[in-house]
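Retro notes (design track)

What went well: tokenization of the new backbones is finally stable.
What didn't: we kept losing track of which sequence belonged to which structure.
Fix going forward: every design gets posted as structure first, then sequence, in one message. First example under the new rule, 187 residues:
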């Protein structure tokens, strides 16, 4: 187990961040400045209402883990590049991070983003899984700097993965199974 540093954002008092280094050098500067609140030692009881494993996974993937609402100005643009979406956190209705966007799945003919490949689960990057969910089930949350969904954990875990954990391109049968699943969830 590792020592974690807990920070608080000066501009958003309810926003906290976890990092491994005391300097907070990898924290998002646009949400700072950041103040080190305390260090949580490996043998110390974890009394924070977010899982230590989730914090560890967020730090492993992004170099930090954010927790709580962020006060941010409105986005200046209505369009975003795909590489800025990839790697963005996905949160449930309780503000818990449930996954990270791996890739966008774009319909060839229309050019519309139809699905998104989300990685979730695992611990420290080991045992994570891919799930393909409809793009329209995600809503960007400026405060979280991530996407929110009203899908339940059970719905997500029951979903088919279009690409699977090995990134293999899907066949038509897999595509149809995935579409059928999400059509049932919507009804």
């Amino acid at each position: 187990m590792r020592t974690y540093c807990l920070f608080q954002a000066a501009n958003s008092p309810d926003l906290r961040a976890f990092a491994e280094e005391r300097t907070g050098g990898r924290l998002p500067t646009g949400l700072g400045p950041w103040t080190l609140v305390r260090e949580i030692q490996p043998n110390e009881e974890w009394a924070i209402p977010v899982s230590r494993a989730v914090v560890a996974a967020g730090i492993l993937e992004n170099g930090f883990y954010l927790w709580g609402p962020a006060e941010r100005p409105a986005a200046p643009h209505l369009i975003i590049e795909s590489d800025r979406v990839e790697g963005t956190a996905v949160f449930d209705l309780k503000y818990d991070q449930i996954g990270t966007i791996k890739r966008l799945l774009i319909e060839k003919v229309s050019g519309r983003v139809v699905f998104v490949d989300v990685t979730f689960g695992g611990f420290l990057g080991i045992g994570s899984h891919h799930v393909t969910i409809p793009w329209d089930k995600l809503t960007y949350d400026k405060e979280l700097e991530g996407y929110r969904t009203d899908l339940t954990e059970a719905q997500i875990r029951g979903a088919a993965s279009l690409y699977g954990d090995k990134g293999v391109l899907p066949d038509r049968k897999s595509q149809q199974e995935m579409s059928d699943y999400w059509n049932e969830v919507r009804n």
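Added context from the reviewer: The first helix runs from residue 52 to 62.
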